[in-house]
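Researcher: Last one for today. Full complex below.
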Amino acid sequence: MKKIMSALLLSALGAATLPASAAEIVVIVSKQNPATRMFSEQASQFFLGKSSLFTPMDQADGSAIRNEFYHKVADKDAAQVKALWSKLVFTGKATPPKEYANSADVKKAVAADPKAIGYIDKSAVDDTVKVILTLP
Amino acid sequence: MKKQLLVAAVLAATAAVQAQAGALDDGNLSISGFGTLGVAQTNTDDAKFARYNQADGVGNSARLGLDTNLGLQATYKFNDWLSGTAQVLTRNATEGTFTTDLTWAFLKARINDEVSVRVGRVVVPTFLISDYQNVGYANNMMRPPIEMYSQAPIENSDGADINFQRAFGDLNFTAQAFVGVSRGKLFVSSGSGSTATYRAPAAGISLAGEYGPFLLRVAHARADMKINDIQPINALTTTLNGVGLTQLASDITFTTGKKIAFTSIGGTMDWNNIVAQAEYAQRRAKEPVYLPDTNAWYTMVGYRFGKVLPYYMHASAKGAGSSVTKPAALSRIPALNAAVTNLLTAAEQTSDTVGVRWDFAKQVALKVQVDRVKPGAKSGLLINLPAAGYNKNVTVVAAGVDFVF
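Model: Here's the assembly. Have a good evening.
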């Protein structure tokens, strides 16, 4: 048991968090989506499983943009978001958002689905998607 | 040796499922899981501390059985509106060893953005955290407070439920109603311990409002519990019938099915790093039955320092009377009177808990928790009691790792 504990301590030290980057994040929907603007609290609802009106498209687990997004819209770190989703997943109430590797992939998925909502780096925006919220 | 094998098995299973999950995930099938690897120990061997419905309690030597479990879940999406989910859970419950049960298996149909219906074996949301009480990672405490969660034996039911979700401005409202038949085993702690099986048509409703970091929930559930094989009760009712106290015998027994109601109000808060959870619940017999009426509550408060969340909790279970009226004739047989009076009395207990959760790595949390359990009437919720009962405080120390994948 003691060995397990010290192993845990060591792995924890190894997992020390990296600082988030300071790029601007924008929340996007498909061009066909009638929404024009949104508050960050509203956007967080879809990503935290509290509303299924829109279908959230997430960035890769552990990516800097994902950590920053949840911090900005919900003031939650990755572990808090994971704990929240584990309540919904293991009660069979919802499935977590599908993950995409990067902003380009999220943009492609959102552009193709009128119900989708995603967030990407501002520099990745083009006219295939509509920006409804900018997170400073 | 057995323990080491178990640990190895749990770890191997986790690794195997993780490895497979990637291979099997064709976009429609998702496999996920949760578990806890925990050890616990108390400061006495005179009585044992156990979770509700656990036959094998923990005493003055470290045991894995109290908090260790492993759940595996598979969900298959047939299309946009229909999916199927099954979950199995391995834990140390009524059998005194680790056993695996099908916790739920249902088809879920999404009627629209706000309404979904599930048919099959679904979780019964009796209390605030009933539906995720076995998922250590989703909870701050090591285990659900037994003062509250021992009041309701029903975890799932075979039937259907309907979920409704709507936002009114910033208020998220959810409602869930279920109806079905629950079947399961109950651990009967009296004497050397035995296992009984129940069958209970059940129905209930829960309403929750979530406003930012605040959640408030009320719920009511009813079950018509029928239990044929609680040996100590059957022995008593046979004796009562033998001495002509037939009405009392039929009042006490569960063999004919008795309606029990559960009502609860609870809330959670996660605001400015202050984390709190509190709940109050009542169990009431709606027809005469030996099972005493009870009131229970708990309050947990914690403060999040980054990845570390220390918390304190107080929990209490108290009796609230009995649905059975003892006939005057019973007092003529003092021994029997004493036995019946004792049976109709609720176990009472309070506990104070301090603990800490540390989210030290991705999808893994370490918890350390110390419970100071104060058994009251009927030795509280302790099991494996000495004949004279046990009324000294018991300290329970536990450490565990919760994970999800």
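The CA atoms of residues 30 and 129 of chain A lie 5 Å apart. DSSP finds five helices and five strands in chain A.
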